[in-house]
Amino acid sequence: MKSLTTDIAIMGSGLAGLTAAVKAAEAGAKVAVFEKRPFQGGGVSNTPMMTLVVRDEQEYKDKAFKVHMEYTNYSADAAMVRSWIDNSSHIPEFINRLGIDFLHVLKFDLDTLGRLPGYGGGFPNGMHIGDYYLLKPQGKGHGAAVICKRMADTVTKLGGDVRFSCPVTGLVREGDKVTGLVATEKDGDELHVNAKAVIIASGGFSDNPQMIKKYTGFTYTNNNCDDGGDVLFNTLPGARLTGDGQQAVWAIGGAQGSMGINGHNLVPGPGIIGNTPWVMKNQMRIIQEQPYLWVNQRGERFIDEDISNNHMAMGTCIASQPGRCAYIIVDEATVRRMEQVGLDHIYFIFPAEKLSDVRGQFEYLINVVGNKHAFMADTLEELCAQTGISLEGLEKTLKAYNDYCDAGYDAQFAKNPAFLRPVREPKFYALRCFCGGYQALGGIRVNGNCEVVDADYEPIKGLYAAGDCAAGNIWGDPPTGGIGVSTISFAHGFISARKAVEHAKAL
Ligand SMILES: Cc1cc2nc3c(=O)[nH]c(=O)nc-3n(C[C@H](O)[C@H](O)[C@H](O)COP(=O)(O)OP(=O)(O)OC[C@H]3O[C@@H](n4cnc5c(N)ncnc54)[C@H](O)[C@@H]3O)c2cc1C
What we know:
Layout: E1 2-11, H1 15-26, E2 31-34, E3 50-53, H2 58-71, H3 78-87, H4 91-97, E4 102-106, E5 131-135, H5 143-157, E6 161-163, E7 168-174, E8 177-184, E9 190-200, H6 209-216, E10 231-233, H7 244-251, E11 256-261, E12 265-266, H8 284-287, E13 293-295, H9 311-319, E14 325-331, H10 332-340, H11 358-369, E15 374-377, H12 380-387, H13 391-407, E16 428-437, E17 440-444, E18 451-453, E19 459-465, H14 486-506
Helix pairs in contact: 1-5, 1-14, 2-3, 3-14
Bound molecules: flavin-adenine dinucleotide.
């Protein structure tokens, strides 16, 4: 058994853990970071990134706070929301100091807050509460990976210790305070770390099927959703986000915070999702952004389809349908329109204005790759036989829906008439979508100072948590339609470091 003594020990080298490590080291603390993977970066380590910043103006911050609280129907933890919002304005300067620039900043005036879809469309409406900073691509555009690498280097330069392939396996609690942690070194030796404060930043639990089932009720599925599962993630492969921090905290008496999956409609692979999951291999992702006919397994509409580019809303809607799936159905006329005239919703991540060879793409998916969720048929009977959609239900829906299209008025859900496109002309195309998400998040209950609390909401001395592992209560309880986002990881990384250093200095 080996041992090590430090001021601040940090579990996880993703955005939250490394932000806290840089801040604590800059404040003069001795820092040690323990990461279970062989490199830094966490779940986001291969993505470009846009981050939300709430301006440091009182009126702006107050409005942002209120919009977010209203969005969550006041079920969010107000103190956590306030501390995130009040601290996010330091993010751009923090990122710039790492030598990273922004490609673009989307500025939003005070009076627009809460009035536009968040993040340009795909994110919760409660997220339209600030300016969006898009990182300047580096190399192949992996902005977040570069941030994490620069943070890890900064910690090392400041005398900190960053250990990879060194998973934390437990926390040490003595009486009312946490005094360290236990990790396993590369050679398999147990490492006992004595620390004045510990920060947990170990991310979500999207790679832990048992926790997903137990705490969210979903069944984890493989990439083709053909194993009976009903939730699919596009977290990076091998992210190994197995909820270790949550379990370590609960084991020493920390309370359980709210836990959930950030909704995000996804058509499963293969042939669709690339090896970097947010990258799609073809235009299927763009088709499911469109505000055309969506039905559930019973053949019934379930939403004003204009929201089909609001991923969080669509994800949660799909999850509440029978079989936890839904279908977008278009006919040949609409396919022609998407190819020749253009799309109605421009997907903000892959902003194509027109599609090309939709039939060829479906044929490839169905006949070459064997994807089980893309369908093409000459008749409605055939389409229903392939998909399992109720023929009776679909015929009834189409009779009404096609009439709405002719009349230019959607008597069922009052959809914008511009998006009423009938389904009449063979071929018929369908995509089956599941709920999915970037991560399963939450589980550790913290207060607005990022202090981990016990069942009586009393802080456990010396123990802090930041980022996805503790972000659940930012989105309510359960965190419906929420998402783990970098702005929370950065802001709560700052706070957890500040509070941990204050605590360590006071000992
Ligand atoms: C594909 C994708 C794209 C995204 N794009 C955006 C975006 O554009 N904008 C945005 O704001 N947000 C985005 N996000 C969300 C955002 O990246 C996350 O909310 C954020 O990275 C979470 O940071 P974290 O530090 O809490 O967790 P993570 O980054 O997941 O880091 C947790 C770390 O803890 C480590 N760990 C786990 N268990 C242990 C253990 N036992 N011992 C030691 N270490 C352990 C993990 O290996 C990991 O490195 C995206 C997420 C994904 C997956």
